[in-house]
């Protein structure tokens, strides 16, 4: 759709940035915090690049006041961060740790005192290790009750101060990476277990929202989903059907549960036929149907392109279509020879029209607009963009600067498409770039940099941990100051 003039961003638009507890906090065993599955996983030799871990990370736990001052100088209107479950309930379900609650309350107070809206993520992958050992983590129904207790402790303590809450971050990413690809904890490769664990996370999400309605009646809550649109490789009807299948497989299977309170019939039938469907009790259906989110959080990096499934196409060389040396967390696709449900549905291929980042992710700003339009049409919920950003090899110059024009170009092009989506009629409450500071990549250490603020450290040496604003910091500062009116020029 072409517009002769774009709408302005709303006056109360939340210009923000985001982070996750494990990736920035450090202080992994301080003030009563219990170990998490990521503490154990990253400290196990061979699991991460150059044995990097989050023991110190970027030391946000001790430097949060300094970090908030950098946010204030930027003019940030919102900051999305996650709470470490292990700081609140060290064993995942027992006594509440006052020191953990106090840390997050102090952070929230610091943000509010500086005019920054806190957006609190309840689960960003760092499950307490005790729950994994006792109940097999999300495979055990007992973890649902533990999550509810954890959430209620936060709702009770912070509900009067925090308006916006995110339940689960990228369930469609941490479940497959942990239970199918064995690339994240608990390092399992079992589709049956994957779909059962996923069902329990859905129930935990619903329980959290149900409790929230009682304890924080004036607040807003919703999940954050790693979404990308699905394109057919061509107008060939079989490719169009493959794209429909892939959208069901990669997106609707999660989003329909969140937003409609039930599993989509197509995917559930395929899983039942394959013997992979989770055990769903009658009371599970009632719980899922009883709650809906107030908004939908969207993490956007890229979508996917597919063609006709290999069985009907008579093409079994699908491995040549895609580089499987790196797992794509946002678009599940079967490897050659792998028994997987999607092999009868679609083949994933590269999009011939898109360039890629240094890490092999497609760059598709127009897809951002497509994603927002489709989500608004399918689910009719306000949207908060909870993540969007570019990873790169940033270099600190001899003068102590970081010239990241490539990041500015990436963010500018995506924000331009976001503004077009708003002009189309999509209700977008805010945009949180990933990330505010550089941080620990889950598997790739500190060489993958996303932040507006450079952290002086590397994989081997913590160095000074100094905060150094990049060129993109000052560019985003101007975007915020003008409420996006400067997006037509760098």
From TrEMBL:
Residue ranges of the TM segments: none
Domain of life: Bacteria
Gene3D superfamilies listed in its UniProt record: Glycosidases (3.20.20.80)
One Pfam entry name: Glyco_hydro_1
SUPFAM superfamilies per record: (Trans)glycosidases
Family: Belongs to the glycosyl hydrolase 1 family.
UniProt protein name: 6-phospho-beta-glucosidase
Organism of origin: Enterococcus diestrammenae
Classification of source organism: Bacteria, Bacillati, Bacillota, Bacilli, Lactobacillales
């Amino acid at each position: 759709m072409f517009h002769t003039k774009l709408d302005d961003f709303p006056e109360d638009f939340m210009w923000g940035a985001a982070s996750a507890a494990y990736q920035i906090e450090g202080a992994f065993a301080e003030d009563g915090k219990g170990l998490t599955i990521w503490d154990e996983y990253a400290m196990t030799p061979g699991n991460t690049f150059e044995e990097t871990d989050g023991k110190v990370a970027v030391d946000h736990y001790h430097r949060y006041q300094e970090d908030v001052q950098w946010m204030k100088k930027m003019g940030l209107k919102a900051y999305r961060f996650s709470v470490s479950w292990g700081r609140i309930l060290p064993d995942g379900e027992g006594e509440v740790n006052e020191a953990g609650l106090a840390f997050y309350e102090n952070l929230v107070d610091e943000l509010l005192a500086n005019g920054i809206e806190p957006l609190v993520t309840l689960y960003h992958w760092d499950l307490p290790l005790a729950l994994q050992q006792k109940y097999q983590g999300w495979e055990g129904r007992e973890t649902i009750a533990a999550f509810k207790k954890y959430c209620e402790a936060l709702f009770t303590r912070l509900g009067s101060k925090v308006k916006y809450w995110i339940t689960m971050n990228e369930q469609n990413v941490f479940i497959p990476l942990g239970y199918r690809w064995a690339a994240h904890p608990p390092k399992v490769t079992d589709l049956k277990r994957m779909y059962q664990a996923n069902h329990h996370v859905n129930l935990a999400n619903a329980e959290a929202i149900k409790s929230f309605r009682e304890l924080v009646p004036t607040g807003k809550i919703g999940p954050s989903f790693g979404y990308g649109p699905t394109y057919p490789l061509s107008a060939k009807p079989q490719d169009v059907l493959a794209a429909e299948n892939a959208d069901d497989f990669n997106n609707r299977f999660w989003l329909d549960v969140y937003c409609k309170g039930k599993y989509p019939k197509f995917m559930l039938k395929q899983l039942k036929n394959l013997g992979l469907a989770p055990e769903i009790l009658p009371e599970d259906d009632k719980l899922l149907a009883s709650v809906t989110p107030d908004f939908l959080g969207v993490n956007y990096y890229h979508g996917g392109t597919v063609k006709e499934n290999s069985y009907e196409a008579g093409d079994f060389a699908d491995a040549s279509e895609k580089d499987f040396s790196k797992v794509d967390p946002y678009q599940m696709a079967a490897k050659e020879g792998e028994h997987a449900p999607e092999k009868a549905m679609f083949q994933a291929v590269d999009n011939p029209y898109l360039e890629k980042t240094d890490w092999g992710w497609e760059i598709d700003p127009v897809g951002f607009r497509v994603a927002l339009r489709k989500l608004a049409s399918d689910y009719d919920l306000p949207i908060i963009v909870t993540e969007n950003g570019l990873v790169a090899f940033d270099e600190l110059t001899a003068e102590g600067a970081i010239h990241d024009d490539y990041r500015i170009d990436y963010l500018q092009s995506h924000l331009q498409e976001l503004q077009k989506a708003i002009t189309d009629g999509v209700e977008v409450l805010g945009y949180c770039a990933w990330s505010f500071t550089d941080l620990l990549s889950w598997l790739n250490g500190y060489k993958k940099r996303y932040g507006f603020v450079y952290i002086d450290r590397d994989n081997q040496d913590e160095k000074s941990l100094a905060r150094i604003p990049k060129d993109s910091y000052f560019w985003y500062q101007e975007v915020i100051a003008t409420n996006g009116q400067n997006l037509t020029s760098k």
